[in-house]
Amino acid sequence: MTDTAYSDPNVTPPLAQAVPLGFQHVLAMFASNVTPSIIVAGAAGLAFGGPEQIYLIQMAMLFAGIATLFQTVGIGPIGARLPIMQGTSFAFVGVLAGIAATMGLSVALTACIIGGVIHFLLGAVIKNIRFLFPPLVTGLVILAIGLYLIPVAIKYAAGGAASFQMEAESFGSLMHWSVALTVIVVSLILKFFTKGALSNAAILIGLLAGYALAYALGMVNFGAVSGASWITPIKPLPYGFEFNLGAVIAVTIVSIVSAIETVGDASATAKAGAGRDATDEEIAGATYADGLGTAVAGVFGGLPNTSFSQNVGIVGMTGIMSRHVVTIGGIILIVCGLMPKIGAVIASMPLPVLGGGVIVMFGMVASAGLNMLSEVQMSRRNMVIIAVSLAFGLGLNLVPTAVQYLPGTLKVLATSAVAPTALMAVVLNLVLPHED
User: What sections of the protein cross the membrane (predicted)?
Assistant: First the structure.
C-alpha cells in the first residue's frame, strides 16, 4: 500500500531519506542512460575512449539531469511535476546509429534538435492522437527496436570494434565472452536474488564486475582518464547544423512513439505512487518536457531523452511519490555530466563489458514490446498486422539492397527498421476491419 504521507508529489521526505532515494533512482538508470551515446559514437567512427566520445557521454548525463528537472520542477506548462526520471532513450539508437554511420553526427544531432521541437509541440495535441498508437502499434515498434539492436549487442560482447568492424584474431574469443557473461550472470543474480538498491542497480553492478575482470585480464586502458580534466564547458552545436529530410522524418517517427511511451509512464507513475490516473495537464506537461529536453540536448551534442520506466518501478516499490526525490537524482546527474573524469572512466570500459550489459538491456527493450503486445487480443487481424509490419520493418533493414533504387531520403526511412514498422502498423490498424 502507498504511504499516504508521501503520495503527494509535492511532499519531501527528510533529507536523510530523500538523498539515498535520489541516488537509488540514478543507480537504476545510469547504465541505460550512457550506453546509447557510446553506441552512436561508435557508429559515427569516433575513437573509442577518445575525447569526442567522452564528451557525448558527459552530455548524456548532463542533459538527462536537466531534462529530469524540466519534468519534476517544471516551467509553466512544461513538466508533469511528477517523480519521472528522464534519460537517453534507447528507442532512437538504431535510427541515430544508422544516420551517424552514413551521414555523420552533424545530421544526426540536427535531426534530434528538430525532432525535439516537434516532440515538444505534440504536448498540445497528444491526447487527440493517442488513438493512432494503441498497444498494438506501440508494442510492435518497441519490439522492432529491440530486435534490431540485439545483433549490435552480440557484436560488442564478442569484441567487435566500435565501428562494428570485427577484429579477425580476437573477435569471439573466450576472453571477450568470459567478460560479457560475467556482466550478464552478476546482473541476473542481483536482479532476482536481492532486493532494494542492489536489485535496482543490478546492471550497473554487473558492468562494474565485468570491468574488474577486464582490468585483471589487461583489457582496460586508463590513459584517457588521466588526461581528462575535472570540469569542462559545454559547446553549442559541436558538430555543426546539417539538415536532412529523411533523418528528420525518421527521428520524428520515433519521437511520436517515445511521446506515447512517456504518456504511459506518467500514467503508471500516478497510479503507482498515488493510486490515481494522470491528469491531462500532467500528460501534456510530461510530453512538453520530453521534447524540450531532447531539443536542448541536441544543441549541445546530447541524444534524445525520454522517461525511464524502471524508475516508475522504484516509485511503486517505495511508495514515495515525491518529485523532489527525483529532482535530487537529476542534480546528481548534472554534477556527473560536468566532470569529464567520470565520462573518461565510462569510456574506458572495454567493448565486451558493454556488450554484456546491452545484451540484457536490448533484450529488455524487446521484452517491453512483447509486454505491450500481451495486452492485445491475438485475433487473426492483429496477428496479420504484427506479421506484415515486422516482416517489412526488419526485412528491409536486413536486406537494404532490396530498396537500393529508392531516393536517398526514402531509402534511409525504408531501411531504418523503425519507420516501416510504425508506418505499416498504423496504416493497417486504421484500414483493416475489426473482427466480430
Answer: 26-48, 55-78, 90-122, 131-154, 174-194, 201-223, 243-263, 325-347, 353-373, 385-406, 412-432
